[in-house]
């Protein structure tokens, strides 16, 4: 999927002191069987990417990734 990046901001304490913090994206390594390729592929996808794969189907998502020139593992 397209690169999900961390968000940045401040952690605000009870006394209102602000320190830098970051919100890391919820990315996971998932293995999918792709019928059109007849093999399993390992993708690093965000939670939103998993929902997109569920909605569109793995074949459509992999075809779009290959059209963009992304490499599959």
TrEMBL record:
InterPro entries: Ribosomal_bL28 (IPR026569), Ribosomal_bL28/bL31-like_sf (IPR034704), Ribosomal_bL28_bact-type (IPR001383), Ribosomal_bL28_sf (IPR037147)
Keyword Disulfide bond: no
Annotated GO MF terms: structural constituent of ribosome
GO biological process, one term: translation
Pfam name, any one: Ribosomal_L28
One of the record's GO cellular component terms: ribosome
Sequence segments annotated as region (Disordered): 1-24
Keywords: Ribonucleoprotein, Ribosomal protein
Protein's UniProt keywords contain Flavoprotein: no
NCBIfam families recorded: L28
Family of the protein in this entry: Belongs to the bacterial ribosomal protein bL28 family.
Name the record gives this protein: Large ribosomal subunit protein bL28
Organism (species): Cellulomonas algicola
Gene it is expressed from: rpmB
């Amino acid at each position: 999927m397209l690169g999900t990046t961390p968000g940045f901001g401040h952690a605000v304490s009870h006394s209102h002191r602000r320190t830098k913090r970051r919100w890391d994206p919820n990315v996971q390594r998932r293995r999918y069987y792709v019928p059109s390729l007849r093999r399993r592929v390992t993708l690093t996808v965000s939670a939103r990417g998993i929902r997109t794969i569920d909605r569109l189907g793995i074949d459509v998502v992999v075809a779009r990734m290959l059209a963009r020139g992304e490499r599959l593992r």
